[in-house]
Every structure is written in C-alpha cells, then in structure tokens.
Design goal:
single chain, 582 residues, 5-stranded antiparallel sheet
Length: 582
C-alpha cells in the first residue's frame, strides 16, 4: 500500500537502488547482506520502500516498509485540514450500524482493540460500501460518510497502516473466541468448510509460499480457510496458512479448532478437495457426521457409479426437479478396510453430461495436435497424456505416434454427467443434495471476499499487516453475509426478484440517502425516503422514522465534535471525545 503523499528518497549511500517495472520505478532498500561461505559471495537482501514520482526522481510515495526501516522519519498521521463533505451519505451507515449492534460486534471489538475499534469498524464499512480494501482511498470514503471512530475523526492512510501493523494475533484470536462463544453450542449444525488461495508478491510475508494454486499465475500464494455455520448462515472462524499446505492435510487441524470452540452437535459439508481416507477416519473417530462431494470418475466411487448406470436416469421417481437432476441412493464402503457402511447418493445431470463430454473431446483434440507437432522429435509428455494415449518411441527416444486407449476414453465418456455425494448418515438423495447445495452460501462468501471486498490483492507488505487485513475482511464478511441473507429473505416474502435487492444494488440505493450541511453548520436530512429505499430498509427492520432519528443522532455527534478532524493534542487533552457505544 503506497501512501498518498511524497517524501524525499533516503540518502543512504550504497543501500538505495532503483528498479523499473512497467511504467513505474520503485525504490529498494538494502537492509542486510549475508555471506555464503560455501559459494564465497555475498547475497544482498532488499525490500521495496516506495515508488518514484513520475515528475520528480528525488521524491517517492512511501509504503509501510519505509516506516519499518526508517522509524525516525516524520509522517503526517492525520489530515491537517479540518473539514468534511457538506453532503454525507448515511443510508448504508445506518444499516451496517444496525447489523453491528445486532451481533454485538462493537463491544467485542472494543474489548480487544480499545479506542482503535471505531476505526476498525470504519474500515469494515469502507470495504463493504466501496468494495475496496486499498487503505490509501479510505480518507476519500471517510470524507463523505458518517464514521464509527471517536468524534467521527478522519484518519489518513498512515494511521490505517499503523493500525494494521499494530493488531496482534492475540487480538484476532481473542475476537474469534468471543464470537464463537456467543453461538448456540447445543444446536445441531452443519459446518461448511472451504478454502481459497491468494497470490502475493510481498517478500516479507511468512506464510507466502509456492503451492498448488487454483489459478496458477506462477506466483507464491497463501491459503485462507473459512468455517461457515450453514444451519444459521453465519461465518464462524477463519484460518490462514502457508501456500504449500494442501486442503486435505489442513482439514484435521480445522476439526481440532471446532472441538476447541466446544461445538458438539455438528456435521461437516465438504467439497471434493477434502476427500481422503485419513479425513474420513478422523471424522469417524470424533463421531462427526459428514456430507462430502466426490466426482463420478473418482477411483473410490467410479465402480459404484458404473454398477448403477442406466438404472435411474429416466426414472421419474428419481427426478429432483429443483436441481434438474436424477438421483439414487445405494449402500457401500468407501475403501476396502472401511469399517462402516456409507450412503452413496448418485446423480445424473443431462446438461452437465453434454458439457463434460465436449470438454473431454476438446482436450483429446488438443493432445492429438500436440502429438502431431512433436513427431520425430525427442519429447516427454505428462501423465494426463499417458492416461488416454499409448505413446510410441523409437530406440533413440524420439516420439513416433500416439494410440488412443479406447476403453479408457469410453469409460470416461460414460462417467460424464455423473457425480456422487457420500454421507455418513441415512438420508434420501434429494435431502443430501439440498444440504450440499447449501454450500453455495459459503462459495458466495468467497466470491464476496474477492469481488465485493476486493481482497484478491492484499496491498500490504508485512506478515502483521496481512493477518490484520484478513481479520478486517472476516468481520466485513460477517456483516455483508447478514446483508445478503436479510435481502434474500425479503425477496422470498415479496415473491418477486427486483434488481435493486442485491447487496451491491441495495447499497448503491441506500447511498442516495443524504444529510446536507445547512445554516450554522448543522447537518440535516436532505429529502424524504423513496419507495425503493423504504423497501430495502424494511428488509433490515428499519423505516423512515428510524432513519430520521438516526440522522438527528449523527447531526448531534458531528456538532459535538465541532466538525473537525481531531489532532493528537486533542487526544492528550481529552477533548471532543464521544463514546459511540454507550
């Protein structure tokens, strides 16, 4: 994250280097040198501390590494000018405030973060409303919105950076303890667990490693997992772990964490990435039921699928029309030494069959083209090629030609369109599918994290800041998930699907509810609430009278804070302080 002000490039002889990338030039600081005795040369260690101005090579926009290596450098912490917009957008603020109070998040965060909890909540609101996580743009958001920070003060991006670097693991873990302690541990719930990975090029982040990225860009990654209470539709906890660790191996540590949070009557809903004999046995050992997706071509279940081919695909009693599939339940064991019978729910999707077959045919055509280009050449092809083709070479290991493994291809084509859900408890094929499809909420949660909170890029350069930013994003996901659920419930009651009832559209409409600065500098509601806004507000249990009373409260807080950004001197004197949580 680069700040929105410039500083002179440090005058450190022999330690400052410049590197051009694209249209930008970056300033690197050499902070250490290590001598390799075996190789007999020195390896320099460098870190980016800023980006050069385009019109002045003597100045740069610094990042948080600049503060790390030049701690005595004086940077502005707050805006020097005392001002805010004469038009404040209050609609989304009022809705987010209600959800925060419903979950008692302000008190939980204040317990862990103290006076910084208000700024933390402002960052949460900023991520949800502006769909951005870049700290340098937060002051622009704060300029035209009410704030949760004390005195509604507007902080600069420097303060944001310092906050992110000051939040400790103990504080985030303490919040997760408090959050999970408030859940109903006696209720039977299904936990949906999923993970994603994020590319990161920051050199000072400990958990960033090369691993199996879902979209491999050749960059190091770190993994982020989220456990979601599917029964109550609430995120429970998150965990970040190094990019080289696979989903399968991380799963049992997540189960241990569930046990530590004292959840007892639970089951797990997992996707195919967590399917392994060890994970199944671990859940059995803890007596946790599970619902897990397995591809129809998976070795462990393909034989069961093949035994039931053409026995249910056109049987109307097996039709699950809500999902346009046919389903059948059979019994069996997952592996030879399995000690329990499992319920295999086999499904056939006609439209998926056509798509998967065409995809397989295209892949085979691609391989054939590649083989044609390499005839008579020394070449080595990967395992996917050898799965469907017999490769022929001469004595000098020059590639000659490839023969299709027709039986293998025929078997793969027959399995197209089939998938299987395995459950440890007895239920119908329809019940299993409905429960598993509930995972769509957790999938939407990750999509919201990357698309609607813009966390596909972290925009920070240290391990502490990455962990803190993930913490902020998790709280933002809790709030945004509640927004989504309440709007979804309202749509069901309305028996229609207005376009303005999605989260982004609803927030855009709520942003049109404004307060304008009138005579004597006081803020007043500018106009009445529109019909659309009333419908959206009613989804959250709000109406026009509540909005008016909240507007009066916001105006009073702004008047008490004298409409200006508080300074450090004000903090020392204890002036203009307002406790927003009384």
């Amino acid at each position: 994250m680069y700040y929105d002000f410039s500083v002179p490039v440090p005058k450190e002889k022999g330690k400052i280097l410049f590197k051009k990338k694209g249209n930008s030039s970056y300033v690197l600081y050499e902070y250490e040198r290590k001598y390799k005795k075996d190789k007999q040369y020195v390896i320099p260690k460098r870190s980016i501390i800023g980006r050069l101005l385009t019109d002045n090579s003597e100045h740069m926009f610094p990042n948080e590494n600049y503060q790390k290596y030049f701690p005595n450098a004086v940077l502005p912490e707050e805006r020097t000018e005392a001002y805010r917009s004469c038009c404040l957008r209050i609609g989304s603020y009022i809705v987010i405030q209600k959800i925060l109070q419903e979950y008692e998040l302000p008190s939980m965060l204040k317990k862990r973060l103290g006076k910084d909890s208000g700024l933390f909540l402002d960052l949460v609101s900023y991520m949800i409303v502006d769909e951005d996580n870049a700290g340098q743009y937060y002051p622009d958001y704060a300029f035209c919105h009410p704030l949760f920070s004390e005195g509604m003060r507007i902080y600069s991006d420097v303060k944001i950076s310092r906050l992110l670097n000051s939040i400790t693991r103990e504080q985030s873990i303490g919040f997760l303890d408090d959050w999970n302690h408030r859940r109903d541990h006696k209720q039977r719930i299904y936990i949906s667990y999923d993970s994603t990975n994020k590319n990161c090029q920051a050199g000072d982040v400990d958990i960033v490693e090369f691993g199996k990225a879902k979209v491999d860009k050749g960059l190091p990654i770190f993994n982020l997992g989220i456990a979601f209470d599917q029964t109550n539709r609430v995120p429970l906890f998150y965990e970040e772990y190094p990019g080289s660790i696979t989903d399968v191996s991380q799963f049992r540590y997540m189960v241990d964490k569930v046990i530590e949070y004292d959840y007892k009557k639970i089951g797990f809903i997992l996707d195919r990435g967590y399917f392994s004999k060890e994970n199944i046995r671990y859940m059995d050992g803890n007596n946790y039921p599970f619902i897990i997706m397995v591809k129809g071509c998976k070795v462990l279940v393909s034989s069961i699928v093949e035994k039931n081919l053409h026995t249910f695909e056109t049987d109307r009693d097996c039709s699950i029309r809500a999902y346009k599939v046919y389903g059948k339940t059979v019994f069996g064991r997952l592996y030879e030494d399995d000690v329990r019978d499992r319920y295999f729910h086999i499904y056939f999707n006609p439209s998926r069959q056509a798509g998967e077959r065409e995809k397989l045919e295209q892949m085979l055509d691609k391989y054939k083209l590649m083989f044609k280009k390499h005839e008579g050449m020394e070449a080595c092809f990967g395992k996917p090629c050898e799965e469907f083709f017999t490769l022929k070479y001469d004595r000098k290991h020059r590639f000659l030609y490839a023969e299709e493994k027709k039986d293998v291809i025929k078997r793969a084509l027959n399995l197209c369109g089939y998938f299987c859900i395995v459950t440890s408890e007895e239920m119908t094929a329809e019940e299993a599918l409905i429960k598993y499809k509930g995972r769509d909420i957790s999938e939407k949660l990750f999509r919201a994290d990357k698309s609607y909170i813009d966390s596909k890029s972290m925009r920070v350069h240290s391990s502490e800041a990455v962990s803190a930013k993930i913490f902020v994003e998790f709280v933002a996901l809790i709030v945004r998930n509640r927004l989504y659920n309440l709007l979804k419930e309202a749509i069901i009651r309305m028996e229609s699907d207005p376009k303005y009832m999605t989260v982004p559209a609803a927030l855009r409409e709520l942003e049109k509810i404004e307060m304008v600065q009138r005579s004597k500098g006081l803020y007043r509601l500018d106009h009445a609430i529109t019909k659309k806004q009333k419908i959206i507000l009613s989804s959250f249990g709000l109406d026009e009278s509540i909005v008016r009373s909240k507007a009066v409260e916001i105006g009073r807080q702004l008047a008490d804070s004298n409409f200006h950004v508080q300074t450090e001197e004000d903090d020392e004197n204890g002036e203009n302080e307002i406790d927003l949580y009384d």
